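Exercise 4. Each item below gives a protein and its sequence. For each, produce the structure-token representation.

Item: Kinesin-like protein (Amborella trichopoda).
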Amino acid sequence: MGGQMQQSNAAAAALYDHSGPASDAGDAVMARWLQSAGLQHLASPLASTGIDHRLLPNLLMQGYGAQSAEEKQKLHRFLRNLNLSGESEPYTPLAQSSGGAAAADSFYSTELRGDFGAGLLDLHAMDDTELLSEHAISEPFDASPFMPSVTRGFENDFDTVTSRQQRSQADASFKSSTNEKETTGKESNLAKIKVVVRKRPLNRKEVSRKEDDIVTVFDNSYLAVHEPKLKVDLTAYVEKHEFCFDAVLDEHVTNDEVYRVTVEPIIPTIFQRTKATCFAYGQTGSGKTYTMQPLPLKAAEDIVRLLHQPVYRNQKFRLWLSFFEIYGGKLYDLLSERRKLCMREDGRQQVCIVGLQEFEVSDVHIVKEYIEKGNAARSTGSTGANEESSRSHAILQLAIKQHRDGSELKGGKIIGKISFIDLAGSERGADTTDNDRQTRIEGAEINKSLLALKECIRALDNDQIHIPFRGSKLTEVLRDSFVGNSRTVMISCISPNAGSCEHTLNTLRYADRVKSLSKSGNPRKDQLPNTLPPTGKDSSSTSSIPLAVEPDSYYDYNQEEKPMDIGRRTVESFSYNSNADVDRNRQSVPPNYSFSSREDGGLNSSAVDRERADITETYGGPTSSKLYSSALESYPIEEEKVQKVSPTRRKVNRDEKAEKQSNWPRKEGRSDLPTMGYKQQQQQQSDTNSNYVSRQYESETQPHDGEINAILEEEEALISAHRKEIEDTMEIVREEMKLLAEVDQPGSLIDNYVTQLSFVLSRKAAGLVSLQARLARFQHRLKEQEILSRKKVPR
Ligand SMILES: Nc1ncnc2c1ncn2[C@@H]1O[C@H](COP(=O)(O)OP(=O)(O)OP(=O)(O)O)[C@@H](O)[C@H]1O
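Answer:
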């Protein structure tokens, strides 16, 4: 015991003795850290005396610092998030990466370490479990200094000064954070998959139409969508859908902040043999391009800065850039006059894109020029869902290569890379039901790739051995990003207007499935029946109001202030009486308010919703309506209503659609779903989640995908055959010219000429007939597909 006390005293002395030039900056950061962990009372003495955060673990020691079990727990968790061992792991100087002997001392200074930690506190260093665990919600750390304040989404008087200060802190911390991470390997603590949602502001058109903003962001990681609905008696009400993600960025968040939250933390990892992928997903016009376009440039800036570090300069690391698109299942080089590219697998199953131009870049200005050039070459066009939709997936890759003199590999061996993917609008499923054949095929291809991407991400996060990357061209191309060391950031972009509600929910459900079905994504999902009051909300982790529970248990739940009551408070701030809501919920009576009061119907989300979104979104059109009606077999009560909710998609342009929906679509909520028992709901939900989609996917979509694949393959074969036929014809023409030249010679044998000419002409004719037959087969196939797809779509 005495020894223990001595040790504690020594720890205390060490804590307070520490001083030096770095300590001032470190103190402020430390105080902020401790405050964010609810341990501000421990911060005050430290702030005035100077503390080295490396000695923080000593606070856990007996007799010093944290006294109560709760404090210790908090501190322990806090330390874990700082990557400091709660077991007082001794501080050891940072290991230098290979060849890093030349790194300057300042590179690893304590000051920099302090700032690094502050920046990573809740978004980067935290693992998924922390972010999603109940405890983390009830006692959240403060938002990262990079993130907007909690209340910003609801207050007009946002403190821009604070924001600017935070931003400059963030800027200052970047250098240190990257330095720190690259040498310590702490980035391995970054989640393999991070799902971030970004809400764009209402645009001018939406404002002029007086459209409501139906998306509320709170606490930087939650959001609620207030879906306007009409009951059978035409009374308007609002159904609230709540979601929780690693980060939710509201409309005030700048592109710089988006970068800091999403890509910045993974940049150092690509110097350590990691393949990173960042992609934006969402309906057309939701801000994918707006979000994605600045990211590669910022990433390139940081990469170039790091490349100048002696440790990498000495190893001859260089940055290479390529930019291509996948359009209708084919690859085109955006930096080389949209030249068609071929994808090949080598003997080691490495995917290489034959003919793709790569450019070594050492100057960020050149990177900018390439990005602009590539963007200008992207395919855009008019579709059933949007007149100016991106019709392609654009992929910009930044690769770090180690230059080797005499290496046959262009640029040398790949060390790591980051791919930025601006996906085609997710609503392109609408194109499968209407439009011309080309647009339908494109839409089906896009749906297929979005589904395949999700499947790969899930497999990746579950450390599955088999990654289904062959599901689409997109995932095949990204194959090496799905194996080995990889990091994925998904940015789901959403529009806030009521007219986009359905698409917004689809996008959020896609994101939710990517995250929540993965191993690390949402541990609360598994714990649901035991640790949380039942919920049938969209997000398995976020609902404040159970979908259908026994009245008593529900009442108990509402008596306590549970973490997700944040959402409830938020809604209340729009003005309504939550008690009334509680009572109503207890009786399972559908609410009866008008939308303008922003009241919370709160009961009606369901697994059906979720599956419907998944299916509608991923398959769209003909398949979706069929799948969806099958889904209803599990929900017989709702069958009729739900079909109304998800009408067959028609060709409606964005304006028409917004117009239509802003008049509140005459949809009926599944308000009687709550009358089902909770267990029944859970059972159905889990059945639906685990089996239904895959079963449907197998039975319904694969034939459809198969058709599309077959058509694309035949198309490819026809084009190759045509090309081959031209080459043969040219060869034959050359032979004919030779024959003519010979026959003109004095003493030539006419018999020879006749025989050879006959042979040559037969070959010519055979080539043409074969090409014609292939063409006729393909035409027939297209007709068949058209008839089939029309049969599938009830009009
Ligand atoms: N966060 C934002 N802040 C301000 N304006 C935004 C934001 N997000 C998007 N916008 C604006 O909204 C419009 C549509 O955005 P954008 O083109 O990025 O959508 P998209 O999702 O890429 O669409 P598509 O799938 O058709 O390519 C643009 O004019 C863009 O400037």
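Check: Residues 200-201, 203, 282, 284-290, 386, 388-390, 425, 493 surround adenosine-5'-triphosphate (CB under 6 Å).
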